[in-house]
Amino acid sequence: MEHKELRFQRLLSNDEVTNGEPVYLFNADRFVRNFVDLQTEFRKIYPNTRIAYSYKTNHIPGICKLVDTLGGYAEVVSSTEADLAYYMTARNTGRVIFNGLIPGKYMVDILKFDGKVNVESWEGLKCVLENAEKQVKIGIRIGEEDSRFGFLESELFKVLSKITEAKQIVAGIHCHVGGSRSLQTWKKKTERMLRIARDVENILGYPLEYIDLGGHLFGRMDEELKKQFGDDIPTFREYAETVATLVRDTYEKRKSMPQLILEPGTALIADAVSILATVQNVKIRGMKRVATLDVSSHDCGMIADYKNLTVENISAPDLKSDIPTVICGYTCMEEDYINREYMGWLKTGDRVLIHNCGAYSMSMKGNFIFPMLAMYMVNDNYEIQEIMRERGQLSDITARCAIGGRRCAT
């Protein structure tokens, strides 16, 4: 990898390609490393591990296609995402996992093509049972008392009875625990799911094909962001040593070991996307300076709501300041913060690089005030490889709208 200053010079030279506009930079090399390293650490201990990329975290087609090239599954939560997954993959690969909340016949279509559907409500189960034209394999999402998702353990016997009475097969169980990403949380949920799997198999009289533990793992991040989370930031290896070891020890004597599925989104994509932006103006407010960029916190993802994203001034990387600068976005919202205590020196026109913007950024931004940014694929040295998405246009806002019954021009 090149020295930082050389990479910054290349970033500035890329303005000829990007026209000086703010853009997302997707580091394909980093994304591939994240995927391969996470999968490798788990497979060292439990070979029958598969990675399913969470489409909702960032569903840019080029990223989804890269996952497919790596042999990963697509974890989707809507019919739209399912259609996107099939557009990126061959329908008969069976590498689609559905965990959505809204029932529909598309759930049966996914099963028809050997995908996985983890039903999480009575309505979802009824939809699958009533629309399945042949025997299918159904997954069950297990929730917790304080969560609105999935079936409670107390409902499991009834769920299993319904599936068995319909002469269908229970293929696996699934969970997704939000909140903490700690090793203790992962240890606790893995032990719980292994216990439930044992109970389910005892009731059914046959082994499950998979145990899906969902996502919500920490990914890699720079030191400035990492220290804001405290000391408990597990590595991929530490997650594997905790989770995969428990699964291996449970099933190592079984002839057919169930597939262990992980559904990371943030852990794969967060640090693989940066934003190249420009300082628009700088103001003095008491003992602070306030710098406004041509991007907003909405472009950066949900993490900007509660953490200070790492910002590097690539125009003048060595300049420091004695007073903090609050780096803000362009929206007319007071809470549009990107970094609340930046200690470098910024001036109007400086180009800055904002890190860790891959998770829930492009998939949630929409056309709020300004349309979507363009995205370019780069390598570790920030050499542009290709354009992945063009910058949004007015037509993205007016398309399919009407005024007085007349379609808006696009």
What does this structure look like?
With 410 residues, the chain is an alpha/beta fold. It folds into two domains: 4-26 and 271-398, Lyase, Ornithine Decarboxylase, Chain A, domain 1; 59-264, Alanine racemase (TIM Barrel), CATH 3.20.20.10. Helix content is 33%, strand content 24%. The chain contains 15 helices and 19 strands. The chain has helices at residues 4-13, 15-18, 28-45, 61-69, 79-88, 106-112, 122-131, 156-165, 183-204, 223-226, 236-251, 266-269, 297-300, 362-365, 394-398; strands at residues 23-27, 49-54, 73-76, 96-98, 116-119, 137-141, 169-174, 210-212, 259-262, 273-285, 288-293, 311-313, 320-328, 337-344, 351-354, 374-378, 384-389, 402-403, 406-407. The strands form three sheets. Strands 1, 10, 11, 12, 13, 14, 15, 16 and 17 form a nine-stranded mixed sheet that branches. The chain has an eight-stranded parallel β-barrel with strand order 2-3-4-5-6-7-8-9, surrounded by seven helices. The chain starts with a helix and ends with a strand. The model has no long low-confidence stretch (mean pLDDT 93). Its EC number is 4.1.1.20. GO terms for molecular function: diaminopimelate decarboxylase activity. Keywords: Lyase, Pyridoxal phosphate. Residues 37-270 form the Orn/DAP/Arg decarboxylase 2 N-terminal domain. Pfam families: Orn_Arg_deC_N.
Q: What would a concise description of this structure say?
A:
The protein has 2 domains: 4-26 and 271-398, Lyase, Ornithine Decarboxylase, Chain A, domain 1, CATH 2.40.37.10; 59-264, TIM Barrel.
